[in-house]
Structures are given as structure tokens and as C-alpha cells.
Amino acid sequence: ALTATVPGAILQQVHDWPEEWGRQRSGFEKRIGSLYGQFVVGILIEDGVKAVHHEDTRYRRLGQGSFFKRTAHAITGTGTARKPDGSRTAALSMPANAYGSWAIATLWSPHEFRNAESIFGWGSAAVGVSAGTSLLKEFWPDLRDIFHKRK
């Protein structure tokens, strides 16, 4: 939870976003609280959907093949999940978390963010972060090995 909230709160504080919360300590506390609340709500939504839909969304690294094959695997793995029988299905839990947590977070956000455009925009950004995380999981071990060998 800390790694999911503190860096974002620091970035928001530096950019004074949302500016209604100010640059003081109380503004930073609101940012931390907002992101933490959104994180908790998102996990509750995601875990609930996973349980009902029987999804296993853990990323499994391909680790071999061409760059394009591995990139496709990472992106496909972001939007799909394994079912108990081994088949794949749409990962409903990921967009439920991304859009649902932001929709709920608008309840304590400044009024200007309480609209469908904001929910869609920030939810879509969260989906993009999920895809980026999958790409990082796929390629980071290879990049780490390249840099480690040079020492």
C-alpha cells in the first residue's frame, strides 16, 4: 500500500494537484489519504470481482521469443485472466478496480473531478499503468541481467 500511495502523493504534492488541497502539510495528508483510500477500495473491488468471476490475474512471464511476441503477451496478459480450468477470459477485475476506485474516490475529491470524463480519463490511465507494469515484469529481468553483467 505504501509503494502504491506515497510516490503518487509526493508527485501530486510537487505539482500541487489538486490545487484545492494546497501545498501545506494538510494538503499532503489529504493526498496520502485519498490515494490510500482509493488503493483500498480498488483492491476490495478487484478481489470481489476475482472471487465471483474466478479469475487468476497473476502475471506469468513469457521470458523468451521476439520483442513483439513478448510485448503482445504482456498486453494480452493485462486484459485477460486464467480460469480454474486453465482457459482464458476477460480480466473484469482490472478495469473494475481502475474505473470503480476512481469513481468512488471522486466522492472525496474536489468537485471538478466528479464527472464521467474524469472517471474515464483517470481509470484509463490506471489501465495503462497496469499494462506498463506487465511490460516491466516481462522485460526487467533481462535488462537487469544486461546491466549486472557489465559490472
Most strands sheet? 2 strands, antiparallel
Topology as H/E string?
Answer: HHHEEHH
Helix content: 55-70%
Distance between the termini: 33 Å
Q: Biggest sheet, strands in spatial order?
A: 1-2
Which overall shape is indicated by the principal axes computed on the Cα atoms? globular
Relative strand content: under 5%
- Overall mean confidence score, pLDDT: 94
Q: Strand pairing plus helix content: what structural class?
A: mainly alpha
Instruction: Count up the helices.
Output: 5
Q: Taking Cα atoms only, what radius of gyration do you get, to the nearest Å? A: 18 Å
Written description of the protein model:
This protein is mainly α and 151 residues long. 68% of the residues lie in helices and 4% in strands. It has helices at 2-14, 25-53, 67-79, 93-105, 116-149; strands spanning 80-82, 88-90. It has a two-stranded antiparallel ribbon. A hairpin with a 5-residue loop joins strand 1 and strand 2 (88-90). Helix 2 packs antiparallel against helix 4 (93-105). The protein is globular and about 50 Å long. The two termini are 33 Å apart.
